[in-house]
Amino acid sequence: xxxxxxxxxxxxxxxxxxxxxxxxxxxxxxxxxxxxxxxxxxxxxxxxxxxxxxxxxxxxxxxxxxxxxxxxxxxxxxxxxxxxxxxxxxxxxxxxxxxxxxxxxxxxxxxxxxxxxxxxxxxxxxxxxxxxxx
Length: 134
Known about the structure:
The protein has 134 residues and is of the alpha+beta class. Helices cover 28% and strands 25% of the residues. It has helices at 14-23, 32-40, 84-95, 111-116, and strands spanning 3-6, 44-50, 53-62, 67-75, 101-104. A hairpin with a 2-residue loop joins strand 2 and strand 3 (53-62).
């Protein structure tokens, strides 16, 4: 398997985003046009590819100085467990290595994965949302 990684958002298509997001059963996959706009509006995006198939993505929103928030991190289930998420996060953490705070919201089933990458839960905090997609 020859997985490649890029930060070039011009390679991302609506169809690729739709297929990737729906592969993990995320409702946002039903809004590929908006997802593409979101990726173009992100501070930084890393994607993983199997030839011309988008199989993974992570994006960051940032103030450009102190804080980076990793909003989306997803891998097509057919490719999970192969180190792709770890590699994409390593590229992202390298990009933001000088930032004081790196934040993400994790579902319970992936807390252990993110813990291995250095993320910790913070006592006394609760993630909060206003979203029609939850």
